[in-house]
Amino acid sequence: MPPHSLGSGTISFGLVSIPVRLYTAASSANVAFNQLHAPCGSRIKQQTFCPKCNKTVERAELTRGYEFAKEQYVRVADEELKALEGEASKIIDIAEFVPLEQVDPIYFEKTYYLGPDKGGEKPYRLLSDAMEKAGQVALAKYVMRGKESLVLIRAAQSGLMLHTMYFADEVRDFGEIDKGDTAKIREGELDLALQLINGLAGETFSPARYTDEYRHRVLEMINKKVEGQEITIAEPAAPRAQVIDLMEALKESLAKRGLSAEDAAAKKPPAKTGAAPAAKAKAAAVPKKAQAGRK
C-alpha cells in the first residue's frame, strides 16, 4: 500500500522553490486497549462532568480556560486563538545551514519524509545531493496546523527528511539535575568502564537487532486469549543484587561477556564518522498514538 501524503509544501531558499509532499516517517506500534465495563464487557463512553453543577456537560457547553492562579481561570474563545495562529502558508523558508553534529538530539520532536511534488523532482534532487555533499542540514520555520514550528531538513537515505524541533525555551535546563559530581571515582574504575564499553562496542547502529519484546509478549497473550487458551502467569524475575563494589561489578560484567580486562582493552572502539550517530538515531524515531500497528 503506497504511503499517504499528509499535505504539500514548498521548500524555499534564495530564489529556489521546491514543491514537496509530507509523509509520516514512523509511528508507535504499542498495543492499544479499550476500557470495558467488567460485569458486561461493553466498551464504556467517556463523559464530561461538572462537579459544581452536578451534571454531565455537553460539548457545546465547553470553553477553554487558562489557570493563571490556583482555581482562577481566564476564558479564551476558539476564535481568539484562531486569530493568533501563524499565517496560513505552505512555505518552508530555510534560514540557515549548519553541521548536523552541532544540533543536540534533545531538540528533535517528530520526523517526516519529504518527497518531491509534481515538477519538483530536479530541484529536490539537487538540494538533497548538495546538502549531502556539504555535510549541512537546514533550519527553517514552518506553520503546521496553525502552529509555527522550528524544523530541520537533512539529507538521508538518498532523500530529504524533515524533523520538527523544540524551541530553546521548551527544553529544560539540565543544570537543575544532580549529576553525581560529588562522587569519587576510584583508581582503575574508569579504565575498567572503558574496557567494558570497548568490549560491547559495535561498528554501526543496527536498529533491526532490537525488538519490543514486551509488545510481542502482550500480543502473544492476547492471541491465546482469543483462541480460548489458558494463560499461565510466569514467576517474576529475581531482583538484581545491589551493587556494593563497583570495581568488582565491572570485572564481573566483563567476565559475563567472555572478556578479560586485557581482551577488552585490546579491542578498539569503532572509528568516529563525520556525522553525529546519536543525532541520527534520535531523529529516526517518531512515536505518538499507541496501537498495535501503523497509523
Task: Give a written overview of the molecule.
This protein has 295 residues and is an alpha+beta fold. The protein has a domain at 5-29 and 84-170: Beta Barrel (Ku70, Chain: A, Domain 2), CATH 2.40.290. The protein is built from seven helices and eleven strands. The chain has helices spanning 78-84, 121-134, 189-200, 213-226, 246-256, 261-266, 277-283; strands at residues 5-13, 16-24, 48-50, 55-57, 64-69, 72-76, 91-99, 108-116, 136-144, 147-156, 159-165. It has a seven-stranded mixed beta barrel with strand order 1-2-8-11-10-9-7. Strands 3-4 form a two-stranded antiparallel sheet. β3 and β4 form a beta hairpin. α3 (189-200) runs parallel beside α5 (246-256). The longest helix is centred in the middle third of the chain and has 14 residues, at 121-134. The chain is extended and about 65 Å long. The relative contact order is 0.18.
Key terms:
295 residues; alpha+beta; Ku70, Chain: A, Domain 2; two-stranded antiparallel sheet; extended
List the helices and strands and how they pair.
Elements: E1 5-13, E2 16-24, E3 48-50, E4 55-57, E5 64-69, E6 72-76, H1 78-84, E7 91-99, E8 108-116, H2 121-134, E9 136-144, E10 147-156, E11 159-165, H3 189-200, H4 213-226, H5 246-256, H6 261-266, H7 277-283
Parallel strand pairs: 1-7
Antiparallel strand pairs: 1-2, 2-8, 3-4, 5-6, 7-9, 8-11, 9-10, 10-11
Helix pairs in contact: 3-5
